[in-house]
């Protein structure tokens, strides 16, 4: 995999959250993706892991030299400390770290952190400025708050799964785990809003992020469509319920995606495919009429596209400024010139794997350049550094904690 080499001379800086410390009690995907966003923005993120195997995803195959692809994907730019939270001494260490932190993120089931003595009420008493973000499947309230959840369960409960797949067939799970990843979107939004509020009030607050709430929020226009029609939206495959042509169209050697959102794009599509007589055809003169003539429009577009190669169609649609794309696999998507220009893949040094490619930060700050993210940490890689640098513990005390199995 090729990696980007930047030619910019902009000075490096950690990011807009430089100087902000995040205590990360998350695991698997929803919580780690939220903490990852904060690390990408320059915060110091300290991932607290249990002794033994650490975050469960460290064991998710496939592995390379004992390191999991899954863990590597959402833990760049973080530090790892191992603390036994089942011990009083371990909880005491965690409380001390919370007293020295700005933000805490956790994604246990509601009540777990309270039982450990690490809930919001307990920690805000010792650090009133602490912003505490709790991410869970169904949130802190409601009849489902204690029910376990995973991505596919949330897709089903939110309605997202019901509208994904081909028309007339059973729904299909989203290929991207949005049921979990929505925690990485809404969590940071709430945290950053609370961070701004704290600059005025000098106090933190508790944030309750429910993944089901977030996924329902991502249904976009579909709830309003249901309110208007009184009917559930149904799967449309790659097509759009109201826009035509919109979807995947065959080429002689593959497929392309075309999206027609307005009448101006309709005329461009017609010109690109030699259908000039259709531009002013009253049968297709509006979005509604094209929707009602979906079968006729799509059949004719397919007849035109399947006579050309993907490259020919890309060239045509580019010339006529039609929204389009070839369908790329993940490797091709990461290697395309646009991804290289945007430095979406960079190389970083992993403690056991050596140089590895990773996906880079998705948000850019052109006036200042952030350094390449540090590699996802091996288990407990920064334990001594954190205990010494933040809590001021000496070598003897750290050795004693390690000998008692409190840290590792």
From TrEMBL:
Record-linked Pfam families: CoA_transf_3 (PF02515)
UniProt GO MF annotations: transferase activity
Transmembrane intervals: none
Keywords, in A-Z order: Transferase
KW Transferase (keyword) present: yes
Domain of life of the organism encoding this protein: Bacteria
InterPro entries assigned: CoA-transferase_III_domain, CoA-Trfase_fam_III, CoA-Trfase_III_dom3_sf, CoA-Trfase_III_dom_1_sf
UniProt protein name: CoA transferase
